[in-house]
Structure formats: structure tokens, C-alpha cells
User: Fold these one by one.
Assistant:
Number 1:
Amino acid sequence: MPSWVDGRRLRLGMAQINTTVGDFAGNRRKILKASDEARSLGVDLLTFPELAICGYPPEDLLFKPQFITENLRSLEKVAEASKGLSIMIGFVDAREDIYNAAAVIHDGKLAGVYHKIFLPNYGVFDENRYFRAGSEYPVYVIAGVTVSVTICEDIWYESGPATAQAYSGAEVIVNISASPYHFGKGSSRERMIATRAADNVAIFAYNNLVGGQDELVFDGNSVIANEKGQLIARGKQFEEDLIVTDLDVESVFRARLHDPRWRKRLPRSREQEWGQTRKTIISEAPFTTEKPLLPDRQVESYSLPAEVYKALVLGTHDYVRKNGFQKVLIGLSGGVDSALVATIALDALGKSNVIGVAMPSRYSSKGSLSDTELLTANLGIKLMTIPIEKVFQAYLDTLAEPFKGTQPNVTEENIQARIRGNLLMALSNKFGWLVLTTGNKSEMATGYTTLYGDMAGGFAVIKDVTKTMVYQLARCRNSLAGSELIPAVIIDKPPSAELKPEQKDIDTLPPYELLDPVLTAYVEEDKSVEQIIAMGIDEQVVKRAARLVDGSEYKRRQAPPGVKITPRAFGRDRRLPITNRFKGDNAKNQE
């Protein structure tokens, strides 16, 4: 066993756990299990994510007094069970108002509380709706090391609480976080944390939440950076993890000796700007100076598009399981979208919990059913085949008189989609299976979907995935499998809704390789039509796409939730009025 007497060290543990909002008993079990493991490893300080006691984000549950009370009771139970440990953990503090808070617990007792300073109120965040901002910047001496804690958004500000705490002596700065995933965020997060560590000449430990909560996925991916900005430890992506690392705190002291910033007193104006700082001595020495050897760690990192695929699997698993479902139901058309959703469901839930349903019509190609049979055989999932011809004909006969003198149009196409949606919901009702819809972001953006038809279901797995990325994910999954799990014939065929003879998506939409860059610019980046045209994209394609997006808001408002994987997803990220005469493609003609 290594001795802790040579130099100043801190054995830090970060518990990257998957909480569920409102599941106080379940969250507490995870917290206590991690605490027991950390204690056995000789951890001096154990951290947990933001609002780990109650789950994140609790949203309007915070307006319920009994929710706040149960959160405080649960914190008391965690504290009582924490003997032999120091813990930093997120909870809701209730005083004259409520605060997004971190509790500092030592040896079974509450030793301090930190209140989040910067409350995010953009994108998916609404924290100003619920919490009061904190105003104090405490630091603590734990196991002889000066430590501070911040919460999520606090760390993103260059001269934020962490800087005040560092200048007040903090050598190790902990950030407990619930930072939602979107592709590319992990690398930008790491760069930011490394910069904060180097700028403040302190060890930064970033403990992120993991798991799915409604449309959000938290990717874990916790990291520790030393005082030079070098990453020295990393948590798993999209998995629970306990990261235990020995921190060389003496190196922080030596680095600061050579940094002239630490020899100068802060200007009085900056002290006033930062508010109150105070130091609380909790423990001058670790519980034990004899530490067991730590096991070797190997953490696999994912890059695009595998990273996105893992996020979709985790988001699907947690939405299904946390809402009490065991099995899911998917309408399989023989196309790549439904094939990808089925494969994600398989990886999330296991083949015995995924049921595919083929619902051929008079317009279905022979290949659609055979391709679906090949897919389900590859996946090992159950396939039900329910032809819709008789039902469709019954609709046509029933509507023959009202439709007399009209020509078939999109109405008859949508009837087929709604029949299929009805059948899927009937099976869901009968057997308690959750319907997973199969529409992608390109379709949701342009309204190439049918209300109460292919939009009918409980969870929209790929609603934030563009069509071009659907193809990337399908090929990525096949690459991981080392075989054609999703048959190449499905990936390679021209996309079609098959609701009328010889129908192809390009009959209604621009080719996806042209459409998707326009949608990214218009929806996610809020670029104007003129700006997108200036990027060198065909004017007619841009204007047509903008009109489709603007005219489909009423559909998107009625869509089921789905996994967020882009910086700006439909829903809480992008809130536009349905009744709206400002259109992006004719903004110059509003006068």
C-alpha cells in the first residue's frame, strides 16, 4: 500500500451515475453503492453530479413543496451513511428561496453548502425560472488540501467562481455538472476545462452526469486536468463509472511559486465583484494514510458517428426503461430509417424486447417486404406482417361519396400512413408496447411526415438525426458489427414513402445531400435565406426548404419527444410560434 506521508496528495473519486428525476430511493442506492466502493479504495473526497439527489432537470417538480422536502430528507440519509468519507453532491437547498446547490459532507455530517452562481437560461435550460443565484465563493480544507466546488455553468465563465476560489487558496476545484450531450460538445468541454486549470494554476475535476432524461442525454465523459491543463483522468462515455485518481497537490503549490500572479493581492474592485469568500477547515488529514493500490483503467473514447450512435442507444434505453416499458414496437417499411431505429432498439433493449411490424399496401414494392424479413432475421427480432389493403379499400369505399368528383392526391397517401399508425397504436394498447417512430430530422424539418400516421408513437428515436447522418450511422453500425447487420440493399435503395406508384422522396424534396446543409444553416444556425444562398447553394432549393420548414411548425409541436444529438434540436432548443406571419424566405416583403 502506498503511504500518504510523502508530499501532499488527495485521493479523489468522481461517481458518474445515472440518476432518475424524482426517484429519491433509487438515486440514493446508487449514491450509497458508489460511496461504499470509494471508501474501500481509500478515497478522501468523493463527488457526485449536479442535483444527483433528485435527478436533473426536475423542471416544475421544483414548485412542489413535497418534492423539495423529500430531496432534503434524502440528503440527510446520504450524509448519515457517509462516515469515513468527505462528499460533494448536488441537491436543492431551501432557505428563503430554493437554490441549485452542492452539499459538502464530512464523516456523516453536513459541513458546508455552495449555491450555484450562474444559472443558465438558454437552449434547454430554464434555471432562472426556478432558482435564486448564489453569491458566496467558499473554499474548504479537506484532508489537508484546500478544495472548492462549483456547479456546471459556473465553470464556463472565464473569470467566474473558480477564479475567485483559486485566488482564495483552492488547489483542487471540483465542478459537479449535468451537461447535456450534443455531438462535438465533449471536445469543446475538455478544451475549456484544460484552459481553466492552466489559467488558475489548479487541478480541475469535472464530474458530469450520465444517462437519458426525456429528450436529453448526458454523456458522462468526466475529466480531471492538472494545473498545467493536462488531462490526467477520464470517465467513460455514456456509461456509469467511478473514476478514482491520486492528485499531486504539492505540484500546484510549486507551480504557483513560479507564477507571479499569485504573489500579488487582488484589486479591491475584483474582490467586491466576486462577493464573499471564506475558508472552512473540515479536516487537516485524510482518514487513512495507507491507501490500497488502484486498479488500472482503460477508457474507450468514441468519435463521430459512433459517438452519436451510443447517445441514441442510451437515450432510447433510459426513456423506455425509466418510463416503465419493457418492449417496443416499430413499423418496418424496408427503408433505412426504420432499419436504423430497429437496430438502435436492439442494442438498447435486447432482441427479445423489440417487435417489428410490416404493413404492406398495394404500393409496396416486392423488395420492401423481403428486405424487412432479411433485416429482422439479421437482428433476431420478431416480425409481424399485417397487410393494410383491406382497410385502405374500406376507407376509399367509405369516402367515395364525399370525395366524388375529386382526383386522388396526398389525402389518399396520408390515409395509408394513418392506417399504419392506428394499427401500431392498437398493438401498443393491447400489449403495452411502446411505439418508436422512425421519422428523421430532415423529414420533421420539412413536414414530410403525416400527423397521426408515421408521427404516431411514444418516442422518436432519430427525430434529431438528418437523413444524411442516418446513412452514416447505418454504415457505422455495420462496421462495428463486421457484417451487414443492416442489409446493404436497404442502405443503397432510393428513399421512398411508397404511398403511390413509383414514388420517390426526391419527387417532393430536394436530394438530401443538398437539403440537409440548408436545414443545418436555417434551423440550427438561424442563417437567413440570403446568407444561405451566398454560401453557394441553389436559390430555389434554399427558398423551397425555408418555406417547408416555416410551414411545418404545427406538425413538430405535436411530435413525440426524441433524443437530442445536435446543438439545436426541435422542441425546447427552438421555440417558434405556430401562428406566425414572419417567414424566412420572404422577410424582405413584410412591409
Number 2:
Amino acid sequence: MKGVIVCPQPRAADVGAAILNRGGTAFDAVLATAFAQMVCDPFMCGVGGMGSLQYFRAADGAHGMIDFHARAGAKVRPDMWTADFKGRSEISGYTLFEDQRGELGYTAIMTPGTVRGFAAFHAQFCKMGWAELLAPAAAMARTGFAITPFYRDFLTRKPQPGLPTGLERVKKTAASAALFLNAKGAIHEVGEHFVNPDMARTIERIAKAGPEDFYVGELGQAIAADLAANGSYITAEDLKNYRVRPGKPVIGSYRGFEVASNPPPGSGAVLIAMLNILENFDLGRCPPGSADHLDLVARAMGAAHLDREKWLGDPDFADVPVAEMISKERAAMWAGEIRKGWLPGNRKGEPPSCTTHLSVMDAAGNAVSVTHTLGTGAGVVTPGLGFQYNNAMKLFDPIPGRKNSMEPGKARTTGMVPTMLLKGGRPCMVVGAPGGSVIISSVLTSIINIIDFGMSAVEGVSFPRIHCEGGPVFCEARVQEDVVAELARRGHEVRHSPISYDPQMSRAHVIWRPEGGRWQGGADPRGGGGVAWAW
């Protein structure tokens, strides 16, 4: 066994397996797969996006993070949207404006970090050349791929009140409509063949001229000129001065495993806080899927989200008390409140954003967990470049003076939690998910399903799921009706989805190698899902 790749896009996973079979490492496979994801799932991620990556190098035990969060442009001002702010969408927490300025168009874009993020990763860890690893993605863009059900579903599902439809998103700019609509001017049907020669040329240029071309070269000049001409807050200097943030993961523990996840403004501390709270209860004695099980998990989710709302922000701009957030003492306090009957209050849940994830391990013990995203995509394509930009501005707080208020150069908070569990100092689980704050719930439940209930990786990501951010408890249709009724009887406000495998519950992707056992790969069945093995 040379390794395993798990991600939502089967054809992208195949690219990573091919790299491993050619003698590449997990690090090489990650880079090639990530760029393939940008081609075949262009509303989930892209060169105009952002992300968070955790790595472990077996040879020397190097273990750290490379964060490449999008940053607010130099023209942003903390109070510039305050007067026009109309609140947040009913169940999404996205900022609402009559003109959709935070969702669509050039005003929604923040300085992209994806290319420099993966370039920094390549320089430090990859064995194979940059151009060689980008070549499969360029070839896929040029020859094309079949539209998947999840690709179409994302653009055709009914949006939350106050948010644009997928068609409105795609048609926001003429270049976007020309690229992403078919010859009939409609969203592509499942199975239609989609080619993107502009994207192929962009990737080929980044491969040949190097990643810096995206920021200061010919590509960077074209990007800066287009943004400047259309009212973006990003300047050429913002592109030039963008820097990734290397650092250490946030470290916690759960039932004898070391848990490593990403630092603020990511939500790794929030995930660890939830696990800490649940460690105070003998969760494994509850029947899986029972009211006792889901009640405890929902309360732990809600409690940790209250701390997230109060404390999480960009540590370059605000004091984030990570040590307190993940302390066992804080968890014991919340466990005590839960035992006294504490229930989540009147908060709103957040459905998934436009994100993807990738987990990779190889036979040498190298491991990577990386989540990268576009937000939900601004509907902006620079003519001739073949990719759309992020719409990260929609998750800033438009009220000045708060932890997550907008400021030039600042990253907004994110639900991304690329995570590893380690035993004896070596990774045994690599896990992550796409989907806004629902990512945290998805990763949490996958971990406890495997560790507390002894499920396999496939069972862990497939089991009926709930989500709570301190308000309603959202349950998939497969959560039994009598369990839903019992949760309501205990005081929860419950929303029971009619969908059995609801894509709004996020899509967890796990690699799990139990002590003395065989490798397992689990791809979430809620949309897409690819597991590729290299033998």
C-alpha cells in the first residue's frame, strides 16, 4: 500500500493516486489533487480562494500549519457597510444587503491566498516539480470532465431567504455567464461535458512562470487591472504583499488521542472545545443515534459555538484566548451546566458554504489535511482567465469594534477545521470537511462515531447527522422520528430535514488507521465522494 486519498471529487482523487503510483509522496499527491479539485469542482475551490492546511512529515516529525486565509483589501473600512446592513440570513448567518454586496460582484472579493499557500507548501515539502504536479489539472481543464450531480445541485437548489440563486450567482458578470452556462444559456446538466481552456492556460502559466506570476506577474497585472476597474477593495499592492501564515496547530486531547487542528481565525479550538465537553460524559454507553447521544452532542456543539461567537477572530487583530477555549476546566464548567439542564439559546444555524476538503496519507506516514474554498463564489471571472473569485467579505461583521469586524488586511473567521488525531506521536486519523460552520459538526461527529462507537471510517461519515450552533438542532431525515420527538420534549427546537443524506450537513472525509489495523478511507455520501488507493 502506497497511500490513500479521500476527497469529494473522484476524478481529482484519481490524480493523487496516480502521483503516488509514480513514486510521489503524500505531499506531492496533495498538491496535484488540490489543483485538480479546482478544475473539476470550480464552485467549491479555486486559485481565487483561500484555505488552511495541516501537515505531518514522518521523517523528522515536522508538524504544523500553513494558513492562506483571504485578507480584506486596503480600501476596506470598518464602518463602510454599517448603515446599509439588513441583518443576517435566517439560517445562514451571512450578511444581508439589498444590493448583495457581500455575496456577489467585485465588492465581495478578498485578496486570494490559495496560490501562495500551495506554493509555500510545495517549497517546503514536495519532491516532484511544481510544473509536473500542476500538469494533470491543466490537462483536465483542456480535455474536460463530466458535470457531476453535486456540481449541478449546488447551483440549482433553493437558496436561503435573502440569498441569490445559483443562476443569479453565475450570471453576475458576463465573463462568468459565458464560462459556466451551456449553449442554451442554462446551468449545465449532469453528465454534460465541460471544458475550460482559459483555466488550462491560467494553470499552465502558473506552472511555467511560477506562482508569483499570479500576484505580481502577467496574471497578477491582469487581475489587479480588472479588480481596480470594477470597484473591488483589493489593490495591486494587496496582491503583491499577501503572505501566508505558517504556524503550529492547536493541540488538545480526546480519550487518549492527541487532537491537532487549525488555529484562529479557523475553528480548530472550537472543535477541540466540543470534544473536551463530551469527554466528561460516557458517550459510548449511549446507543448510537439515540436521544441521549444526540442530546449531549447538540448541547456540546451549542456551548462551544457560544464561546466561538464571543472569542474567535483574526489573532493579528484581536486577542483570541485559545488556551481558555480549549481548557479542560472550561469544558468541565460547560459539562456542569449541561448536567443542570442548559440548552442552546436562540441562535441561528449556518449551512455550508462553497468549500472542499482533501485528506491524504502515504505508506511512509506522511499526512496532510487541507480545506480550501471560495466562500460561495462571487460570480466574478476576469475575462480570459477561467476562474472565479471568492466572496469572503460576506462573513465579516459590518459593525465596527468587534472581534470579526472588517479591517484592511484582516482575515474573517471560518469554520474550516483540517484535523489530525495522533497516537504515540504519529497520525492515525486525518479528517476534515467542506461546509461553513457545519464543518465543525461534521468533523466532530465523524470523530466520535469512530472513537466512541467503534464505527469504520465509512460508517463514521455516513451515520445520521445533526448540527447545532447554539440555536435549533438540525437533523437529517434518517434521525428517527421518536428521537426527534424526544429531543423536542427535552427542550430543543428541532428542524427535521426531509432529506436522508442532506448535503447541507457538510461532507466529511476521513482516513483512519486503527492501532494494529488496516487503512480505511471514508468519503461522505452526501455529495460526491472519492477514495483512491495507490498500491
Number 3:
Amino acid sequence: MRGEGPAPGAAVNRGMITATVIAACVMQGVDQTIANVALPHIQGSMSAAQDQIAWVLTSYIVASAIMMPLTGWLASRFGIKYIFLASVVGFTIASALCGAAASLPQLVLYRLLQGACGAGLVPLGQATLFTIYPRERHGHAMAIFSTGAMMGPILGPTMGGWLTENFDWRWCFYINLPVGILCTLGILSFIRYSRNARSEAFDMFGFITLSVAVGALQLMLDRGQLKDWFRATEIWVEMGISALSFYLFLVHTATAGERSFFNRELLKSPNFMAGSVLMFGVGAILSGSLALLPSMMQDLMNYPVFTSGWLMAPRGIGTMIAMFFVARIIDRVDNRLLILVGFLIAAGSLWQMTGYSLDMGEWPILAAGFLQGFGLGCTFVPLNLLALSTLPRHILTQGTAIRALMRMLGGSIGISILESQLTQNTQIVHSRLVETLRPDNPLIHTLTAPFSLTSPTGIAALNAEVTRQAAMVGYIDDFMLMLFVILASVPLLLLVKTGRRAAGPVAATVAAEE
């Protein structure tokens, strides 16, 4: 998509086009995190269980992951302007539908549509800037783009908390409508139509089989806890569909050669393979934390939704500071060292989170969030450079798409597993704690009001407190699981070799995509 060159008249409208692109990308970035803080309120409104409400997040991520590899082909075939316009219009309409959803299935369906439309906003916006700025100003354009793209996740939690507390959770989606309308007018008025003279080939069979495999796997993980896993026929069917689709994808990849969706040359790059696995783990930790913390703060610690929103803001600020810091030293320091330091800082924050309790104040949440954001922010650019800079140019675009797919899959699968473990561990710990609440336990006689084993009100209050304690243990177990994941990922750095530095568009691309 970058080979189109500056569009006629681009210099005249460059400022308005840049503003339109940044607004669209900020809208998409905000939507990645704005719903997390409102999840407990959505859960109550929809009468959904803890593991069910996670579908609101995973459906969006999976749809984005599946559609992102298709975006480049659609743009090369129909033109960046029209696909960008369709993405913005579709995203805006889907946002309105999400706000008007009357049930959980409706909301999940509309979030799927929103994720599918939003997948192209960042890469298409980036491609648009490449076409209107001359090559010598690409770095400047990507600096502006990166700043705008990072503002979305930072503003999202606080904005979501404020809207939910002062209006309603539905305004977390309605807020996209004026921005989407302005972006639509900007695209129609200022962006010129252009596309590649030659449309790139696209492996539709490989794309469909991989999409079905991923979709069925995600559905199995999302529905497993609700259906008691493999005791239900539905779970077996979903697992079978996923396994069969993945098998067909592998066979097709092995026999289709360079025309396949997944070029086999990617397997020959240890850096790309190790980097993709590491990015999967980063996605799981990043998205998992964003999904767990708002419900922990609101449901267990009784924080107002706005308070839980601004307590999430230091995570994004830490990421932004880390990326500016890394940009200054990345040419002077071994990229593997930056990744190692980032992982260790993130691991330290997760270790701190395993010490959370119901009696703690706000400072541990602020500190752990900032450290985790800073640590993961240190890994984004060097990890992507190591994974992509050694790839031949003819498979660089495909490698970028696969890397983004792995990060998003890590996020969606991580959320599903963590929410399932949270529900299961809460039930297990609750049952063990209840076993000790017997009249012959001497500690029972030390209970004070409102707790009691002799009155219905006292028993209800005691059960509610036991549920809170059990849930807190469940959250701590999830934080411990994420800690193990990041520590287990560190040895993969031994497979990564330092190669040539990524220059020009490659470096700009991997920096901007985060």
C-alpha cells in the first residue's frame, strides 16, 4: 500500500488529512480500553456472569485479529480511500448498535462488527500518511501518528469511567458517533482516491481456514466454563471444527508454496518465530490485566467507576514514556537487553500484584500499573524490530500481519483463560472457606455484627464476605499465572539473534503500530 506515492493535491490538504487520520486512530485506540472500565456496569445491566461478560472484549479482539490481514488486500484492490471510508462508517454504525444493545448476545454481535471494521483503521491511516508525505518526511509523519495512536489507550479508561459514572455505560460507545461523522466527512472531502495498479494476490482459502480455526477455538474457550467444558457436546464440536480447520490450513500451507497465506519462509527465521511467541505472551498479559483490574476494583473494593478509570491511566502513561525512552537509546543498546529489562520490570509488577488485598489503598494499583505499562512499553519496538528486520522484503507485509495476529490472539485467548480460571478458582476457594464456618470452630464465636451463623441476615453477610475473599484469591491466582507466563517467555530470547537494523519504513511501521 505504500508504493502508491503522494496523491495529487496531497500537500494542500495534508493538515486536514492528518487530522482525520489521527482522529480515526484515536477513536479506535480509545475503544480498545474504554469498555474495560464499564464492564461491571454492563455485566449488571445484561445480567451476565463474570466469564460471560468477557465476551464483550474477546469478540472485539478476535474480529480485529481475523480482519487485519485482509485489510491490505482490500485496500490494494479497491483503494485506500474507499476501504478506509467503509471502515470508519462501519465502526461508527457498530458503535451506535453497541450502545443500543438490549441483550448480551446483541452486544457481542455488534462488538464483532465493530472489531471487524476497526481492524483497518490503524494500518489504513498509516498507509494514508505514507501517500501524502514525501519519503524524507515519513519519520515525521509516523512520530505524529504514534503520538495520536498512544493517546487512545491512555484516555480510554478515564473517559470510560467518567462517562459511565455521569451518564451511562452506553455512552462509552455513543461517544464514537460525532468523531466517526467528522472522520467520514474528512475522508470524503480531503482524501483522494488511489490504489495500486496491480492488485496483490491473496490466499482466500488459507485466510478462511485460519479464521474458522481461530473463531472456533475462541468460542470453545469463551463457552467452556459455562458448558462445563468437555462434558458438553457443543465444546467437542467447536474443538473438532477448530482442529479440522487448522489441519486444512497446515496442509494448504505446505502445498501452496509462496501463494499461501502463511509463507513458509517465515518458519526459517528464528527471530520471527520467537518474536511472534513473545508477542503472543505480551498480548495475553496486557489484555488480561486490562480485563481483570476494573472488575476487581469495582466489585471487590467498591471503587467508583471513575476512580477505577483514572487508576488505570498510569499504565498507558508508563507505556508512552517507555516508548519515548526506547526510541532514544534503541540504536545504542542491544535490543534483546531492552526486551529482557522490559519483561523483568513487568514481572516485578505482577509479583507486586500477587500481594494485593482487600484492605490496600490506591497506591499499589497505581505503582503496579505504571511499572507494567513501562515494562511492556520497553518491549514493543525492539521486539518488533528483531522479529521483522531480518525478513526478506517480499514477505515483510505478511510477517507484519502475522505478528499483529499473534498479539491479538494472545489478548483474546489470555482473557478467556484468565476469566475462566477466575470463576473456577473463586468457586473452589469459596467452598474451602465455607467448610470452616461451623459452630464448633472457636473463631466463629469472635464474629461481630453483621456476621452471624444464627440469623439469615448474618449468614447472608458472612457469605458475601467469604465470596469477596475467595474472589480476591482468584484474582491473585490469575496474576500469578501471568507472572509464570512472562518468566517462561524470557528463555525464548536465547533464540533471537541480533541482525541488521530495520531502517526507514520498517522501523517507522513497527513503532507506529503499537
Number 4:
Amino acid sequence: MKRIINALMLAMLATGCSDPNTTQTNQTTEQAKAETVQVLSLKQQLAPITQRYFALRPEIATYYGVAEDEAGKDVLSKLTDYSPSGENHRRKALKAILAELNGIDASQLSASEQVSLGSIKSEIASALLPAETVAYGTMLGEYGVWFLPYVVNHLSGLHVEFPGYMEDKFAVTTPEQAKAYLNRLTMYPAAMGTVIDKLDQDVQMGVIPPDFIIDKTIAVLQQQLVHHANEHPLVSSFKAKLTAAQVPESEALVNSAAELVETKYYPATRQLISALQAVRLKATHVAGLGHQPQGAKLYKAMIKHLANSEMTPDEIHQLGLDEVARITAEMDVLLKQVGYRKGTVGERMQRLLKNPKYIYPNTAEGKQQLMTDIHGYLAKVNTKLPLWFGLLPNQDVAVEAVPNSRAAATSGAFYDAPSQDGSRRGTFWISLYDMAALPSYSLQTLTYHETNPGHHLQTLIGLSDTLPLLSTIFYSNAAGEGWALYAERLAAEMGMYQDNPINDLGRLQSELHRAVRLVVDTGMHAKDWSREQAIDYAVATEGIHLSEATGEIERYVVWPGQALGYKLGELKIIELRTKAKKALGDKFDIKIFHDRLLENGALPLDLLEQKMDLWLESAKAANVAAETKV
């Protein structure tokens, strides 16, 4: 990846820091070329590549709300082939895409396009690292980007993503779209067959998820079978869309959907349950990736892939311990201010957690109050955004509770980007399955992480009609989650917790949670920690609810390395800001810094740093020139 970075650096230097006379000459030359040769934009050049990508992962077109003319013919009616041969094809095809991207002449692109191309290439190269390390697992498995070591788990895979995007994201406004929806239901058993084939192949290689992951996955699948077919969310959500759009012959279409759920979806779900029950007999209780074939090498590749880091697991583990010590010292001061003086920070946060004053009732009224509070926190922060950002989101964020049918399988909260076709807003989803795990003092920070100034603001600023869609799909997990964690800290700077030490404790606990992730993720995958050891450490250190700690730890088991991106990304952004303030002194403008950081989307951390360094050099030169002129 160093070659990609160096090429991008040279291109950006050529466009952003060149001599004015040379620039004028180059512009004249380029103008002459343009008169004879029409240069395609990067988006135009990547259009056929984008369609080839969607052919590999058709569901991602639905996730991002991409129109069929851009995604490719009949993509909305197709499902991913998870079979061993399908997986091999995806790996080879992605390598071919990277080779084609490397052949694009970056000198013909704008500075913004060069950054976008460099980011796409870097993220694809990163995604290929785990696949080049092991033959098992699945590429492009989560949101179309991440590598997953287990093709089937409680959080990821066809059985999780299918109902998710079909119910929430599949637009049904025309008879053609309704037909595509039914086609996907028809194809579900065949797609599930490819999943089971891949599961069986990986088991033959000795790759078996831990027993507790299999148990939880089976429970998720059984939850899908509790409805009568005509009451299943796959049918009821379809009916609501048809009604809203007034699609002709809606009743017949709904009846067809119910029949397909009964005759296709349910049997396929039972088939996967049976397959997992057979695999369960061979499973162990070992949590870490290190016990899988080539697991230690795979974990290092996952760190590069999802955390954009060259750090070793031992270095990350120690960094986590250091951050835990720093943050708990800050929390100790606040806890004493509010009257919690005895015991460790974790023990005192446990007492705070059990205070009924901070727990929303597990009732319809309690859940409604929680949603009302989210909207209040969002309105409060929105009034201050113009003081901290020059670029602002041009679209409000939607706030939705995860449907009951999927709430138990959802980890906390998450953000979905808006659809490309404009039919769906960016959405903050929150699971209300366990209200005890959502104390009121944690909600304000969670809101800012997922909405503004976190994921929603970052996503909307990074979107561009002129840049290729792959810029959005191949995003950096570390930059994206690092920004959202930085946004939590930024909210405190913006005065959101002023005179509210309890909610500020929630903010610090949230940051502590991300430091704990560095410890437990490396602990399980590189230091032979058990699931129970990791859960106990999280509960004792953070003072969080046992159910929250359990869900989090089991998430890290199946998404190794992903949770490292939050802290490592945040620390990089803080480092870049500190560097800029030191270099620019009283000329430093936080709004300009934030705009430059976000304007190209969630770039891989190394490219982000080099882009910001170039901006900083340009800003320093401009300041010197202005002072000289005066």
C-alpha cells in the first residue's frame, strides 16, 4: 500500500502546492489536450467497475439505495453466491478490480478525484489482506467491506442482513420493484444453500465458531420463526410499502409474499438451524481467533484491514491499559463531585447503573421517553454546529427503534447512510430490547456519536455527486468510527454537558468503553483470554450492565479487529488537530480543520494524515505570504 500512498502524495503535491507560473503553464497544456481528447471523470471511469462490484454483492446496492441503471441490470433481484466457488470468484474479481484501478492515469484527475481513487485502492488492498492470509471466511461480508472469519454468526451473514435490508431498505414503489422483492424471497433457499456449503467447507478446514456464538445464532434464527407467515415483518413491511405507494394489485402481491415466507423463507431458516446444530457438536468454548488455522496471522491482517494500523497486538493491548488508567482517573474526579466516593470506578458506576433514577422503564411509555430525549439532545447540538463546522449536513437524520423481530440480535445502536436515490434518510437505529442496558446518562453521548456531530454529519459532508459511489462503500472503519468517538469529546467542548456531570460521566464511560475494547479484543484474539474473562474485565472496569458487556464481547469474537478502530482512529484525529494548532497558532480555525478533515469522506488513516499534512503546509505558506504582504 505504500506505493499507492506515494502516488497519491505526488499527485496532491502537484495540484495543491505547485508554483503559480508552472500551474498556469500546466493549465494551458491541459486545456489544449482537452480540446482534442475528452477526459472522463473518475465517476465515469469507475461506472463499469462499480457494476462489477455490485454483481459480487448485489445486496449492497439495496443497502445504499442505488438505482438499477447505476448498479447493473437485475441486481435488485439477485442475491450473493456464498458458496466456496462464489467466494473464490469474489477474491479473484476484487484483485482484478484493484489491478484495473491501479491502471487509471491519476494525472488526468482533479485533486479531489485523486484522493478518492487513492482511498478506494487503499481500502480494497486492505480488504484483500485477510483473504490472502486464509482460505476460509468471507470477503465483503459486512456492509460490503469487512472480512468475516465466520460466514455464519449472530450478527452477520445472509440470515441477518436479508430481513434487515428487505424490511428497512428495499424500496417498493412500483410493480417492478415489488416483483424484484418477491424474486429475492423466491431465491432465498438457493442462497441459503450456498451459505451452508461454505459453512461446511470451513468446518472441514477446522474453522468452527465458538459454541456460545452458535447458540446465539440459533436463537436469532428461531426468533425468525415465531410469526405466522402473513404476520412476519417481511410480509407486513412489504404490505406497508405497497399501500403507501398505492401499487396496483397489492393484495395479491402481499399474499404471494406470505406464501413465499411460508414455503421458502421458513424452510431455509430451519435448514440453517439444522446445519448449525450439527456443527455445534464439534464446537469448543474458545473465544479467540488465535485458535483457528493461521489465526494469529489473520488477526494481524484484520488489524491492518479494520484499524488501519501497523501496531502489534501487544502494543495495542498496552495502549488500551494506558488509556483505561487515564480515563478512569478523570471519572474518579467526577464521581466524587456527585457523591460516589467509595470503591473502584467500575464499582461506583455499577451503583450508578442500579439507581432507578437513571433507568428508563421497560414500558411503551419508557421507550417513548427515551426516543423523545434523543430528539431533544439532537436539537440541542444542532444549534451549535455552525460554530464548529463550515460544512453542515443538508439533510436531517431519522431516529428509529430496531424492529422487535431483530432487536435481540442487534448490538446497541448503529447508523445507516442515506440512500443514493434520495428515498431514505440517514438513520440512527437503536435497539430497545434491553432497557436496563440503556441508562439515561449514556444516551446523550450515544446520540452525538450516531448523529451530529458524529456519523450523520460525517457521512453527509463526505458524500459527493461528482465522486464515485465506491468512495462511500469502501470507507475506513478506523476513520469513520474514530471520528464518531472524537465527536463525543467534541460535544463536551461544545458545552453539551455543561452543568450536567452525570451525563458527562456517561461520556467518559463511553470513551472508557473504547479503551477497554483495545484490551479485550487483543486479549481474546492474541492473549488467549476467555469470553468470561473479557466480560468480567469489561463489567469491572466500566461498570456497565452484564447484558451489554456480554453482547459487546461476543461482537468482538465474530468481528475481530473492528472494535480497535474507534480508539485508534480518535487518537489519530486528536494528534492531527494538536499538530495543526501547534503549527498555525492563533491562525488555527477549528471550522476549517473539521471541514478539511471530513470533505473527502472516511479516508484510511495514513492517507488522512498525509492529506491533512499537505493542507497544513499550504495553510502555513498562505499565512507567511499574508504576513509578508502586510
